[in-house]
Amino acid sequence: MSIGEKITFFRKKKGVSQEAMAELLGMSTAGYGKIERDETDVNYSRLELIAAKLKVKPEDIVGFGEKTNHQTNNNGNNSCNYVGENSIFQNFTDKDLAHALEKSQQENAFFKEKKSQQENAFFKEKISFLEEKNLFLTEKIKHLETNIPNENQTEKDIFWEIVVLSFKDEAQAIALLAQMPLSYFAIFEEILAQKLFALDKKVLAQSIYKNCNISKDDFLYVRCFTLAQGRDFYEKVLNNKISMPSNTFEALLYLSEKAYFQKTSNEFTPILTSVSYETGSNLTFWQ
Q1: How far apart are CA 265 and CA 99, in angstroms?
Q2: Residues 164, 245 within the same domain
Q3: Which one of 102, 112, 160, 219 is most buried, by most CB atoms within 10 A?
C-alpha cells in the first residue's frame, strides 16, 4: 500500500472529503488529489501536517498496512524486516527523518516528565494522607490513654465514669467500655440493672405523669437520664432530696451491645441480671 493510498484510507475513515482536506491544508483540490494518487512526493513535514488534520500520528499513516518479511539468515536464525510493497521511506530525505526522530525523542521526554510529575503528585498526596492519619491516630491514642480506667478504681467507679460519659459523648463511652475485659460487661449490666431497679418506684413515676397514664418505656428512659447525670444526682433523686426529671435518655441501655461489637465484631448476647430494670419490676414500690 502506497503512502497516497494510506492517506486516502485515513481521510475516508475520518469522513473528510478531498475538497475539505485540501482546504485544511491550504491547497487546491487538484493538488491534494495528486498526493493521494502518489503523483507528487510527500516529505515528512507535509505528512506531519496531513496527520495533524486527520488527528492521527504520522507513524499511524506510515505503519498502516505494512507487512513483516521473515527471513532465515546463515546461522539459521529468523530475522524480521519491516517492509512495504514500496518502501515509503524513499520519499523522505535524511533531514526529514532526522526531524521525525528529534520530534519523537522530544515527545518521549515530555511524556516521561509528565508521568514522573503525576507519580510525584500522587505520592505526595498519599504521604500527606498518611501523615494526617498518623496524627489522627496519635491523638486518638493519647485520648484513650487518658481515659483508661485507673487500676485503683473500683468496678462501680468505672461504671459511673462510663455512664456519665455516655450522656456527654456516647462514642467515647463506648470506646472506654470496649477497653475493659469481657468479664466486666456482665458487671456493668448488673450494676446498671440494680441502679435502674432502685429508681423503679410508683411514687417517682406519679411525680412526673401526675394524673396521666404512666408510660412504661418512657419512665425507663427517664430513669436512664437520671442515672446518666452522675452518682450525686442519682442519690438525691433516689432519696427524695430533689425531684425526678422528666428528660429521657434511651442510649444508655445499648452501651454494652455497641461496645461489645466494637471489641469483638460479634453480636452481644443479653446478660441475665439479678433484677430487671423494666418498669413495674420493683413490686415492693408498685403496690
Answers
A1: 66
A2: yes
A3: 219
Q: Say if 266 falls within a structural domain.
A: yes
Number of folded domains that form the chain: 2
* Structural domain span for residue 183: 155-285
Locate 74 and state its grid cell: 546463515
| Better pLDDT: 2 or 173 | 173
Same domain, 91 and 208: no
Most confident listed range (67-71, 78-82, 122-126, 183-187): 183-187
Q: Which residue has the higher pLDDT, 94 or 83?
A: 94
pTM, two decimal places = 0.48
pLDDT in tens, 45-57: 788 889 888 988 8
Claim to verify: residue 91 and residue 174 sit in the same structural domain: no
Specify whether 91 is located in the same domain as 200: no
Q: Is residue 129 part of a domain?
A: no
Residue 64 forms part of a structural domain: yes
pLDDT for position 79: 36
37 near 4, Cβ under 8 Å? Answer: yes
- Quick check: is 174 in a domain? yes
- Quick check: 89 pLDDT over 90? no
Q: What is the C-alpha separation between 281 and 194, in angstroms, rounded?
A: 11
Candidates 212, 217, 153; CA nearest to 179 is 153
Chain centroid to Cα 60, Å, comes to 40
Q: Contact at 8 Å (CB) between 3 and 11?
A: no
Across 20-24, 96-100, 224-228, 280-284, least confident range: 96-100
pLDDT reported for residue 153: 64
Q: How far apart are CA 266 and CA 257, in angstroms?
A: 9
Distances in Å between the Cα of 283 and the Cα atoms of 105, 149, 175, 278 are 92, 36, 35, 11
Question: CATH number, domain at 20?
Answer: 1.10.260.40
Handedness of CA 16, 18, 20, 26 (dihedral sign): positive
Identify whether residues 197 and 269 lie together within a single domain: yes
